[in-house]
């Protein structure tokens, strides 16, 4: 499973990589610090999973979700953000995100989710 982490915080990316790397079935982890590199990776090496922050220097993660929807890309999107307003939750889900987690207190749920996704893939 190829996972792309799109977050402007290098600390968050490093922590996620450290936690995701040992998950069985994770074969590749890419990282992007802004919208343009995220879109480039989505276009060149379509990952199975995208962990997406909403606020980045170049724009908003909702733009990435719109792009994914517009191009009909097959990628599971996990929004992991500090901006956990009802607006962002609803808009993210409307634009195709499957999961929406609060970065400050639901970080661990991403790891649990990725582990269970691997189990489901092996069983199919």
Short structural summary:
The chain has 124 residues and is of the alpha/beta class. The chain has helices spanning 10-20, 35-44, 61-71, 86-94, 107-123, and strands spanning 2-6, 28-32, 49-52, 55-56, 59-60, 76-81, 99-102. Helix 2 packs parallel to helix 3.
List the helices and strands and how they pair.
Blueprint: E1 2-6, H1 10-20, E2 28-32, H2 35-44, E3 49-52, E4 55-56, E5 59-60, H3 61-71, E6 76-81, H4 86-94, E7 99-102, H5 107-123
Parallel strand pairs: 1-2, 1-3, 3-6, 6-7
Antiparallel strand pairs: 4-5
Helix pairs in contact: 2-3
Task: Describe this structure as you would to a colleague.
The chain is an alpha/beta fold. It has a single domain, classed as Response regulator (Rossmann fold, 3-Layer(aba) Sandwich), CATH 3.40.50.2300. 47% of the residues lie in helices and 23% in strands. The protein contains five helices and seven strands; from the N terminus they run βαβαβββαβαβα. The protein has helices spanning 10-20, 35-44, 61-71, 86-94, 107-123, and strands at 2-6, 28-32, 49-52, 55-56, 59-60, 76-81, 99-102. It has a five-stranded parallel sheet, with helices on both faces. The chain is globular and about 35 Å long.
Over the alpha carbons, how many angstroms does the gyration radius reach? 13 Å
Query: What is the CATH superfamily label?
Result: Response regulator
What class would the helix/strand composition place it in?
A: alpha/beta
N to C succession of SSEs: EHEHEEEHEHEH
Strand order of the largest sheet: 2-1-3-6-7
Tell me the number of helical segments per DSSP (H or I, 4 or more residues long). Answer: 5
């Amino acid at each position: 499973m190829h996972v792309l982490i799109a977050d402007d915080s290098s600390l968050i990316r490093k922590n996620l990589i450290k936690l995701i790397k040992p998950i069985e079935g994770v074969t590749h982890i890419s990282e992007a610090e802004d919208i343009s590199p995220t879109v480039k990776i989505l276009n060149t090496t379509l990952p199975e999973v995208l962990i997406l922050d909403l606020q980045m220097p170049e724009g908003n993660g909702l733009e990435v979700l719109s792009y994914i929807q517009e191009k009909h890309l097959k990628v599971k999107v996990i929004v992991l953000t500090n901006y956990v307003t009802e607006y962002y939750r609803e808009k993210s889900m409307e634009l195709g995100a499957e999961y929406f987690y609060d970065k400050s207190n639901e970080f661990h749920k991403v790891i649990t989710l990725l582990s269970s996704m691997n189990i489901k893939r092996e069983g199919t």
